[in-house]
């Protein structure tokens, strides 16, 4: 680090040139500004924005190439041996064994991954926060039951039970399978969230401002959801940002095993399932690479968010 | 201590009961009844009814559930709907593959994770530390099945090490070489994902411990750096790592489904997956019980082992 950089660092980032008014900023705004100075986090945001654009643009890609995601072109997309052809002018990222366009399918797969990842996280966060706050604040028998319940859920062999659930309700429409996948993921993810929230609430409820609220006549509900909840923003944001990649991997695994998103809708997991990658590398690297890129970016972003909210915390990636 | 063990034991039994009951109910409410899956799509209604009667599926739900509980409690897991073989012997047949898979991977990830973790912590911000954190991130992000697909591709197809094979499980007592040829890649695939967590955990825990007063005391006494790190530091740092290890090794028995499927190893992961697809209820329930048992026992051992490993932990 050079002297000028050191000097720049010595001045607080929010110091304005003289004459300007000094404004108060909320912890959330401060965290966001720290996040925007984190190169890794910004790079991950850029990658994620590109993937989101790729997902949004799926129908556009389908119309430009003239290949809807379910359409099969066995004659033009496969060679005389019946093997799928690689990237070409017509099929930019090659074709799959049924003669479908890999690029278009990957774009639709991006929609599934992002949607499932975010929807499952939101659902798990909602359930986790409500249960965690109730258990932590009410305490006593309610807490004992809810805490045991979290322990039980956490000791379930989740992949096995998830496959059983997915097979039992084996839905035949894409939309129902999407809904089911999201629910299954949320069922097995909320407990970790609930446990952390519970711990936070238990320490928060002894603080003076809660006593003040109570002495002012605030009811239980008001204390829980108006006084305590805003103080949970940091830990919940951090944990849920790391839940997104986990959920994406969960969905891909279920789809890979054939019990997640049902055809004809493509998902990166199911695309990898029918990949005979020995002869057709693009079948492994297109969906696999996108999947890895997405989870990597979310993990790095989550790490950046944690660092922004709590600069003292342990980072995944160390830096100077 | 005694009361603590009893309490954990009771909780373990509760978990076993809840897990199996959940799966039992799920299988029961399945809209595609088992007898139809067994009879096939073209079977006549009479055949389906006959199968239903023979399997005892026409009895009321509670009667079926009660007989399941009673049989399970006496150690009788019943017979497979598909092959008619005893469930316990089917599982016993498949268990070695899974146990070897998990055991081999566990050694790799435990030793690998702790070594890189300690090195990262003692040489924080070095090149090694940075490289290892990069791998940690990769390990945390990559889906298990993708790793299992990539490794054979990389080692056999690209680098051309044809010594490695993919194929059915072979007992190490029958053919040790073939056993290794087929197990090393699955071990690596499984371990790589988990080694990440352990490296990070060890690094963090080690850095916390090395900052404590008694480490300074140990150094002040003139102990060698190696002795300070390994005898004083690592021992205390191991507590959270061993906790995680117990939880993971139990849970992993259920998560080997993907690795076994991709590598074609015939362990209980593949067994349960195929049974779910075929609707072989007794086998599914048997494997579920066994997996849950692994989780519960592993957790129990961790809880008890905790107090032995770290003398500062006192259980009431």
UniProtKB/TrEMBL annotation, chain A:
UniProt topology in membrane: Multi-pass membrane protein
Pfam families: BPD_transp_1, OppC_N
PROSITE patterns in the record: ABC_TM1 (PS50928)
UniProt-annotated location(s): Cell membrane
UniProt keywords, alphabetically: Cell membrane, Membrane, Transmembrane, Transmembrane helix, Transport
Domain ABC transmembrane type-1 span(s) in chain numbering: 110-302
Superkingdom of this protein's organism: Bacteria
Chain spans, region Disordered: 1-20
Keyword Cytoplasm: no
Residue intervals passing through the bilayer: 40-62, 112-137, 149-169, 175-197, 228-261, 281-302
Family statement drawn from the similarity comment of this UniProt entry: Belongs to the binding-protein-dependent transport system permease family.
Protein name, per record: ABC transporter permease
Origin organism lineage: Bacteria, Bacillati, Actinomycetota, Actinomycetes, Streptosporangiales
UniProtKB/TrEMBL annotation, chain B:
Protein origin, superkingdom: Bacteria
Ranges annotated as spanning the membrane: 99-122, 134-159, 179-198, 283-309
Listed CDD domains: TM_PBP2
Domain ABC transmembrane type-1: 95-302
Record Gene3D superfamilies: MetI-like
Keywords: Cell membrane, Membrane, Transmembrane, Transmembrane helix, Transport
Membrane topology listed for this record: Multi-pass membrane protein
Subcellular location: Cell membrane
Chief localization: membrane
PANTHER family: DIPEPTIDE TRANSPORT SYSTEM PERMEASE PROTEIN DPPB-RELATED (PTHR43163:SF6)
Similarity comment text for this entry: Belongs to the binding-protein-dependent transport system permease family.
Descriptive protein name: ABC transporter permease
Organism listed in the record: Actinoallomurus spadix
